[in-house]
Amino acid sequence: MNNDDEFYDAVTGLDSDESCEGTSEASFKDAVVYDDTQRTNGSTSQENGIRKRRTTLPAPMFSRNNFSVWGILKKCIGLELSKITMPIVFNEPLSFLQRITEYMEHTYLINKACSLSDSIERMQAVAAFAVSAVASQWDRTGKPFNPLLGETYELMREDQGYRLVSEQVSHHPPVSAFHAESLVGDFVFHGSIYPKLRFWGKSVEAEPKGTITLELLKHGEVYTWTNPFCCVHNVILGKLWIEQYGTVEILNHSTGDKCVLNFKPCGVFGKELHRVEGYIQDKSKKKLCVIYGKWTECMWSMDPQAYESNKKAEKKADSKKQKSPEEPEGVDSNDADNMPEVLETVAVIPGSTLLWRISSRPQHSAKMYNFTNFAMSLNELEPGMQATLAPTDCRLRPDIRAMENGDMDQASREKERLEEKQRSARKDRSKDEEEWSTR
Fold it and tell me: Could you read off the pLDDT of 146-182 as tens digits, one per residue?
């Protein structure tokens, strides 16, 4: 595949007579940002001194029903997808830098960990945070825009007590880095993500390579982990649905405690869909706690012996029911990988302690890319904000702004313009044998 086929969503932002030396390719200072202040009443509302953030988008999403991705993907089975041009209708109006900011939606769990005196209880809170950080992906089948090298995103949340900055720090491979910190010095949360996407015929699998690090400064503790795999099913035929699977190991480097979480694949009959099960062990590998639940709903913790006893009782009851097995309803042999029927919500075992419960989504979420309330606010451009934002900030991208405002034709034109500018910048750098670097 040659360079002309490579796919990037963002603009260089530099006119032809400007020097590229020492500047970010992602500058959007020449971009037309579509003003949506009419749609947001043109003012920033406050309540008790805290700014109220928007809870809806300017326009509902465009229907994807009349578009087929098969013509694009049929030659890409088993290949990495970052270089494949996708129609804008399959995007969502956020940059990937904004998407990873959604890790911070349940920051209260980090604050809780900071306040706890027991290291195992802190690990429970950190484990709940690690699960909550991927919960926003539930039903999020739109592809975020690929950031350009040097593109940035900044977020200050006084109400939740943190600030965050993220940047696209590498081109090949595409690596996004983020750094968040408590406004009162309680924690630092940082990491880098290299999302590898592959098409497997009926599904697209995302492998989020990269390490996540959480530092609880008051306790002198450092935790690290990686995220599970994410798979979008039925990209060709049928209803899109998402599952996450794989083993996530959270290590407390200060105490040697470890939490091992198994994000279970749904299996043939879908019994394990969305389920997460794991345990916390100390440095001598003694199991101290079991964690269970669903990444789409809630997580609980309990004593490991009581959990195993309950599991044995469940297996005994199931074996009696399976004397005359029948094929579950909803299983068929068509070409679509139908999403299994979601079974009962998490059955809470007596003696369990609730660690986390997912925030409910707004009623209009399905019409707005299945965004959470937190996601709805991430691309909000308030009056006066443009004057203080870095010219590389995602909020200034004209293609994302046009898509958010419902102008798909303009969004597509901007996307094509940005792609062409990016290709041109790469060729110029290659000709001069230059490597991009920060100022």
Answer: 888 889 999 999 999 999 999 999 877 889 999 999 9
Cα angle: 374, vertex 375, 379; to 5 degrees = 115
User: Pick from 359, 226, 241, 356: which is nearest to 293 by CA?
Assistant: 356
Instruction: Give the closest residue to 250 by CA, choosing from 113, 104, 358.
Output: 113
**325 burial type by CB count under 10 A (0-12 exposed, 13-18 middle, 19+ buried):** exposed
Can you give the residue ranges of every domain in the chain? 3-16+25-244+370-431
Structure tokens at 2: 């040659």
**Which residue type sits at 149?**
L
For all residues of the chain together, what is the average pLDDT?
Answer: 83
For 212, residues 6+ apart whose C-beta sits below 8 A from its C-beta are 103, 130, 133, 189, 191, 224, 225, 226, 227
What pLDDT is stored for residue 63 in this prediction? 81
Whole-structure pTM value: 0.84
Residue 147 per-residue DSSP state: P
Residue in the block written with tokens 């670097």? 437
